[in-house]
Design brief:
The protein is α+β, with helices and mostly antiparallel strands and 154 residues long. The protein has a single domain, classed as Hotdog Thioesterase (Thiol Ester Dehydrase, Chain A), CATH 3.10.129.10. The protein is built from 3 helices and 6 strands. The chain has a 6-stranded antiparallel sheet. Strand 5 and strand 6 form a beta hairpin. The longest helix has 20 residues. The radius of gyration is 16 Å and the shape is globular.
Length: 154
């Protein structure tokens, strides 16, 4: 999938876009990659002299991959975006450092109306970095714009 297709599927943009490439995709599964160059700003403070990708960003990268997967499911409902509602059973197994390429495998386990339940596994060189389950709901994009607009005014 081209970068343009990724940008059309999800609202995330630089510097918070954490998907570089789609390797494979079906209705129920997606496999994506992201390479951390070492130039990302968070490395300066996490941790100076010993840079490590924050675990929450590994989870976010997998959830962005999941959002790309769900974009196809929500295509028939214009104006809806997948928003994370829950993370369960998060297990961090390996640190990710500058220069590492992560592979995100996300499976859609179940759909109940506008609720989606997924499983994610993030690996580096075949070793599990994090694995977890998460849920998303289809939120109205205009509602998200209203919330952002209110924040900007405050």
């Amino acid at each position: 999938m081209s970068r343009q297709a990724i940008l059309q599927a999800i609202p995330h943009r630089e510097p918070f876009l954490l998907v570089d490439q789609i390797e494979a995709q079906s209705d129920q599964r997606i496999v994506c990659t992201k390479t951390f160059t070492g130039e990302e700003e968070f490395f300066a403070g996490h941790y100076p002299g010993h840079p490590v990708v924050p675990g929450v960003l590994l989870c976010e990268a997998a959830m962005q991959a999941g959002a790309i997967l769900l974009a196809a499911h929500l295509a028939a409902v214009p104006g809806r975006l997948p928003v994370a509602t829950r993370m369960n059973d998060v297990r961090f197994k390996r640190m990710v450092q500058p220069g590492d390429t992560i592979r995100m495998e996300v499976d859609l386990v179940e759909r109940l109306a506008d609720a989606f339940f997924l499983k994610a596994k993030v690996t580096v060189q075949g070793q599990v970095a994090v694995r977890f389950e998460f849920a998303c709901t289809a939120a109205a994009a205009d509602r998200m714009t209203q919330v952002e607009s209110r924040r900007t005014r405050e």
